[in-house]
Amino acid sequence: MKKCMLLMLFCFTLILSACSQGEEDTQEYSGIIGDGQTLGYEYTVTKEQNKFSWKVGYKGDISIIEESAGNKEDLVNYMNAVMIVNWY
Asked: Distance between CA atoms of 31 and 52, rounded to whole angstroms?
């Protein structure tokens, strides 16, 4: 019985360690997390530390925008519009 309890405790500790390690990896990830383009419209979302920047454009006219609470909804709407047009 003691061996079974020790084995269960070891497995629980191992699983808990693996889960917490995965969360740290995604929080520290830096790089491109999404991109798309269609009909001349394009976007690229980049994460560096805890900041998101968006490269948006039309036919080569590109702007880089830092995501904020004030513009997040507009940026997501732009991304969704590009994705929907590309899907059709």
From this structure: 10
Phi/psi at 11 (nearest 5 deg)? -65, -45
User: Element (H or E) spanning 67, and its range?
Assistant: none
Q: 64 to each of 5, 46, 57, how far by Cα in Å?
A: 55, 10, 9
69-78: pLDDT as tens digits: 999 999 999 9
Characterise 39 by phi-psi region: left (phi > 0), alpha (psi -120 to 50), beta (else).
left
Residue 22: which domain range? 2-87
Query: CA 88 to CA 76: how far, in whole Å?
Result: 19
How many structural domains are present in the chain? 1
Helix (H, G, I), strand (E, B) or coil at 56: strand
The torsion angles phi and psi of 71, rounded to 5 degrees, stand at -115, 0
Global confidence as pTM: 0.66
Coil vs helix vs strand at 69: coil
